[in-house]
Amino acid sequence: MKIKWIGKYTGSNLPVAEIEPGAKSLPEVTSRSAFMLIPVFLMFALCAYCKHAYLGGIAFSRVTWMIGVLIALVLFPVHELLHAICFPAGSQVFLFYTAQGFGITCTTPMTRNRFIFVNLFPSMILGGVSLILFLAVPCTYAFASTVLCAFSLLHLGGGYVDYLNIIHLLKLPKSAVIQISGPKIYWK
Q1: 70: phi > 0 → left, psi -120 to 50 → alpha, else beta; which?
Q2: C-alpha distances in Å from residue 152, one per residue of 2, 27, 101, 156
Q3: 44-56 tens-digit pLDDT
Q4: Which residues on neighbouring strands pair with residue 185, listed in sequence order?
Q5: Which helix (H) or strand (E) holds 70?
Q6: Among 70, 79, 158, 179, which is disulfide-ready with 122 (CB 3.0 to 4.6 Å)?
Q7: Distance between alpha carbon 17 and the CA centroid of its chain, in Å?
Q8: Bridge partners, residue 103, by sequence
């Protein structure tokens, strides 16, 4: 895998691939996609309730919460790098940024299941593992518990666009081939 930095996304500077005739595009992700955050917040509310009710409570402080948020923000580029390592071997991956944060794209065709994995892997590693650790850390370790909770919330919530892609991908045939070209995702 080779990573190429393309700087700020301007709307027209993403790499374009030659798309096979008859390929269809997945629905575009819009600001309405933020509805995907609702299940993430509900899951966190349930986890916090369970930890409070069954595991001895929760102790948060604003300072510790902000430390967790800052650590999560600093590690958002790692989220994109985790996407990058999931693309097929030998692929050229393009890293860019927008007002919303970093992004990554690759024009190499891949199977539907691999693209689901590309979308899911970073959130599960950074968000899922830290959520499990948050639940496992005793409430007496308030600093670690709070940092893990904030970190997990940001990394699971930050993947909402990926979750929407996964929902669209699950509607496609298992044999579908996925290819990104410019800002769109195509399948055939």
Answers
A1: alpha
A2: 28, 28, 17, 6
A3: 889 888 888 877 7
A4: 180
A5: helix 62-74
A6: 79
A7: 23
A8: 96
List CB contacts of 75: < 8 A, sequence separation 6 or more: 126, 151, 155
Contact 185, 104 (CB under 8 A): no
Helix axes 129-136, 142-157, angle to 10 degrees: 150
- pLDDT at 168 exceeding the cut of 80: yes
Among the listed residues 117, 111, 79, the one whose alpha carbon sits nearest the alpha carbon of residue 97: 79
pTM for the model stands at: 0.89
Beta strands in 9-106 (DSSP E): 24-25, 92-98, 101-106
- Residue 112 near residue 169, CB atoms below 8 Å: yes
Read off the tokens for 3. 């990573």
Length of the chain: 188
Q: Which residue has the tokens 């690759």?
A: 106
| Amino acid 4: pLDDT | 93
Mean pLDDT on 155-167: 90
Please give the pLDDT value at position 186: 96
Taking each helix axis from N to C end, the angle separating 129-136 and 37-54, rounded to the nearest 10 degrees, works out to 20
User: Using an 8 Å Cβ cutoff, are 116 and 178 in contact?
Assistant: no
